[in-house]
Please model this.
Amino acid sequence: MAVYTALLHYPVYNKERRVVATSLTTLDIHDIARASRTYGVKRYYVVQPIENHLWLARKLLSFWQGGHGREYNPKRWEALKLVKAVPYFEDVLKDIEERDGVKPKIVVTTAKKRERALKFKELRALIESGTDVIICFGTGWGLTEEFISSADFVLEPIEGATDYNHLSVRSAASIILDRLLGTK
Model:
């Protein structure tokens, strides 16, 4: 069983519901890597098609994965060694198949309620049964409908005690990983 995570900057919506590629946020790379490492994720992918943003992600990763950062902060390196930056989601699936020989089930996350969304406990049971999955997190105003409909599963949204539901992707990733992979 392997769990992978992916942070997609494309294809996502902006607030006008136009399909866009969003800007890279280096904190997302660091924080989701740390959560991924904490919960035993095999690899964390950053999907960023904007050329200079992809360059920035790779530059940051080269610093922490093999440069001065590895010696400066080994704990940070321990998390960031899981990360690979690629331009498109197809590159993620190709990398997993080439490296690990598996085709993981694609699970998308969303802040919106959807019919037939998989409950956290159902996805946890699927993972515990040995199914390889990749959990996809969207930036901006969420993953596109086309991307969501192409996934194997849609995960139920995180719900708080109020009607406000606009967590940062870093926070949402941590909560989701804890619910799926944390101790019971």
Remarks:
- Residues 3-181 form a domain with the Alpha/beta knot fold (CATH 3.40.1280.10).
- The chain is about 45% helix and 15% strand.
- The radius of gyration is 16 Å.
